[in-house]
Amino acid sequence: MAFIKTYLPLVLVWLISLPLYAAPTLTLTYAGDSAKPVAGVKITQTEADGTVTVYASNSNGETTLDTTANTYTLAASLAETGTDPVDLLDAIWILQHSGELRTLTPDQQKAADVNGDGEVDLLDAIYILQHSGELRTLSPNLIFLDANTGNPLSETTFNPGDTPSITVIRTGDTNQDFDPSLITDHAPFMIGKTTLIIDENEVNVGTLLGSDIDGDSLIYSITAGAEKDLFTIDASTGILIFKTSPDYEDPTDTGGDNLYNVEISVSDGANTTSQAMTIA
Fold first, then answer.
1. Which of 25, 58, 31 has its CA nearest to residue 168?
2. DSSP per-residue codes, 165-206
3. Which residue has the higher pLDDT, 22 or 130?
4. Dmax over Cα atoms in the chain, in whole Å?
5. Can you tell me the distance from the alpha carbon of 236 to that of 213, in angstroms, rounded to the nearest whole number?
6. DSSP state of 37
7. Terminal-to-terminal C-alpha distance of the chain
8. Alpha-carbon distance 221 to 265, whole Å?
């Protein structure tokens, strides 16, 4: 009892002093329009300690990040780009802006800066007209920005407790009439930690998870990696196991450091993507 009376207050003080961070819900919207959530986006979180986790945005353009005490960066990508929204009207908006007949928002100006010189002017309108006439090709890739600063997502570092919000734009889509909900065929991809830590000499690695916003059935396979021949995966469930029990004292990985590298591919029957993973 004396032990409890002595140390319980110290434990309570220690617990109270620890920062408590709620799991943040990240949101992605096209041009900051809450009516245009961007679904099926692959979001890669890299923490300061090297931990990498992959998430997928749901139909509401949201995903819940794991709680962390580390600073972290985010990268986002969406392989599918849908119908080209860039047309004559986008060029007209730029010309009106240049003639002070229309004021573009900061996000619209970023989309309008087609030639990437930091200015919105006649040359950008010409680029769009050339694109519309199939004389020039503009990048169809979506651009992801930190909604709070307007800076590229890749250049933003987040702190524990932050609730990231991502604005998505597209080069040339000045009037921002692109509708991401019209993308109906998304490629699947692996989600979760890219390094899996298992108990010493454990055979079962775990169940790997793929995400497909379209709800298609997924097929898993091992397609590459220095130690790919040491594993097997259930094509329908994603259960990954060692073919034979590993020996921690006598590792059989290439580096001899109990770090086993494999590449897992996931397919919906039409689209296939791969993810490098480490088993430790």
1. 31
2. EEEEEETT-TT----GGG---PPPEEEEESEE---TT-SEEE
3. 130
4. 85
5. 17
6. B
7. 42
8. 5
Residue 57 pLDDT level (bands cut at 50, 70, 90): very high
Neighbour order of strands in the sheet with 260-267: 195-196, 272-279, 260-267, 219-224
Within the chain, residue ranges assigned H as helices are: 2-17, 88-98, 106-112, 122-132
The pTM of the full predicted model, rounded to 2 decimals, is 0.89
Q: Residue 133 carries which DSSP code? A: T
Q: How does strand 25-30 pair with strand 165-170?
A: parallel
Which residues are paired to 222 by β-bridges?
264
Q: Is the pLDDT of residue 177 over 90?
A: yes
Beta-sheet pairing, 272-279 with 195-196: parallel
**Paired residues of 26 in beta bridges:** 63
Q: In angstroms, how far is CA 211 from the centroid of its own chain? A: 12
Decide the pairing of beta strands 204-207 and 52-56.
Answer: unpaired
How many other CB atoms are there within 10 angstroms of residue 133's CB atom?
9
Residue 22 confidence (pLDDT): 76
State the pLDDT confidence band at 20, using cuts at 50, 70 and 90: low
Are 180 and 37 a contacting pair, CB within 8 Å? yes
DSSP three-state, residue 14: helix
At 14, list the tokens. Answer: 């220690």
Q: In the numeric block, which tokens belong to residue 48?
A: 């300061």
Looking at the chain, the number of H-run helices and the number of E-run strands are 4, 17
